[in-house]
């Protein structure tokens, strides 16, 4: 059995075919251009494939309310052509199949729970820290949505005492994304994060912000695993720094083994590595097939 | 059909009998003393009642992991006699009935979703702000637990610029509870909150802290309703101040009607008023009966 997967990012679209065990057997990618250009490419790729469902994990914000006439739309993105675009509805006119539909980060959280670092667990939180910060939440065996999907990249954070950087988020200036996403590092230090040495003070500052957000996440949701992906997290020296921040912040309050003694296997990189996104779309497609939606 | 309900607080225990529609038909309350004194009182109350299940919403922290030998225990409380006490297991030796078991705040969140301010919604977050701060999370139609239950009262918060108070939380000093619970107000201003005038600057400061926590909650979970209970929230002037803080913090980022134009009916007091706790235990009992657990 084969399932189609669409990982729609702001810069590129990855389409693939995968199996029930999470194995990706084929993939293709192309730049995210105007939907008039991009949709035909997606349709062309899947047209001759024997697939039983398609999952879409996409950039957002998106409408996830099945009772809304705008369900399946990309909503307020500045990306030309995609604002208020009926992404899911357009795909459905070409394929009479069950469709899964969620954000790229919720998809990644799901794939990590099904096949990755949170396998066999009923909860995890997935952070991607790169050009922006995104959060996917999986709790009690389900992806979490409410009025909309999580936008946890924009939570307020306390400033690091040595940090004079104003923050770059156009809405909140010094929220988590404004202080800790890749562009914040570059603007604060005048050099790309990937070019900073591993013992540069930038990383302790970065861990201060990420650790703070993770502390709140643990206190609010106590997920069974926290997974940190995205370009910034390729800086592996961040992991021990972030784990220390979390323990320092909690100060023994959540006295559970995963946090007190097992934190090295509690706050971890994606088990699926760079496949988390596409596998996430695959997992959404599989779930849609099972639900017949 | 009648269901038993136990609302176990740090100072008093309320036992009651209720019906499927949330109506409480009988209740009794007594101080929370040592379990040797308290358990027999609970047993005595329910002994001659024709009930089909019992729900327990209790102070914590508690063990909620059904695979743990300590499932049903009160864990690390300083309350004499209750630390590492098998509360649920002890009750089960007296009553061969399905038992519901969760924190008092999760119970309150559930009752508000079943009969109260979040009726017919599949998500809500319940805050109680009183002697301490507690949070119950209901998402995707389920109460949320992970490694343990939420402890969202202890999330980090940014200080108000005019606030020199150190905070009173023994673990984190200036976390939400340390800055915004009843004792913080009293220690900061030297007078009980209930004796401060409604236009005192204490309330704007209080709204700063609560509004910040709610902002994070909305960004992480986007619950369909936020319910604020507890003694501090009897100060009704706080509601408009908190709503303004949330809108100011989000700064138009979550552009959804509930927050932009409908916030007066989005951040609200408990629909069940002072019955939220006992009704919550009732709802836990009903849920246990349906699941046959």
TrEMBL record, chains A, B:
It comes from the Bacteria. This is fructokinase. Its EC number is 2.7.1.4. Keywords: Magnesium, Metal-binding, Zinc. Belongs to the ROK (NagC/XylR) family. PROSITE patterns: ROK. Its cofactor is Mg(2+). It catalyses: D-fructose + ATP = D-fructose 6-phosphate + ADP + H(+). The lineage of its organism: Bacteria, Bacillati, Bacillota, Bacilli, Bacillales. It is an enzyme of class 2 (transferase).
């Amino acid at each position: 059995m084969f399932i189609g997967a669409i990982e729609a990012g702001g810069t590129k679209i990855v389409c693939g075919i995968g199996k029930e065990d999470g194995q990706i057997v084929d993939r293709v990618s192309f730049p995210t251009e105007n939907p008039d250009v991009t949709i035909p490419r997606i349709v062309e790729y899947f047209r001759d494939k024997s697939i039983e469902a398609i999952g879409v994990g996409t950039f957002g914000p998106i409408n996830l309310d099945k009772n809304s006439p705008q369900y399946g739309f990309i909503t307020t993105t500045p990306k030309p052509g995609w604002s208020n675009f009926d992404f899911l509805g357009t795909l459905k006119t070409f394929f009479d199949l069950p469709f899964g539909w969620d954000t790229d980060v919720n998809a990644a959280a799901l794939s990590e729970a099904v096949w990755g670092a949170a396998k066999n667990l009923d909860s995890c939180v997935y952070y991607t820290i790169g050009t922006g910060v995104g959060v996917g939440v999986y709790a009690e065996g389900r992806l979490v949505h409410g009025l909309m999907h999580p936008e946890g990249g924009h939570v307020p954070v306390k400033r690091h005492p040595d940090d004079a950087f104003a923050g770059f988020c156009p809405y909140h200036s010094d929220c988590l994304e404004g202080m800790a996403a890749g562009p914040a590092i570059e603007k604060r230090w005048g050099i790309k994060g990937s070019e900073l040495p591993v013992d540069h003070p930038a990383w302790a500052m970065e861990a201060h912000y990420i650790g703070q957000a993770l502390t709140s996440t643990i206190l609010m949701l106590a997920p069974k695993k926290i997974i940190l992906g995205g370009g910034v997290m390729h800086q592996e020296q961040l992991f021990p720094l972030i784990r220390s921040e979390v323990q320092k912040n909690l100060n023994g309050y959540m006295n559970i083994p995963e946090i007190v003694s097992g934190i090295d296997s509690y706050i971890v990189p994606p088990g699926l590595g760079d496949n988390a996104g596409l596998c996430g779309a695959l997992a959404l497609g599989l779930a849609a097939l099972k639900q017949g939606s």
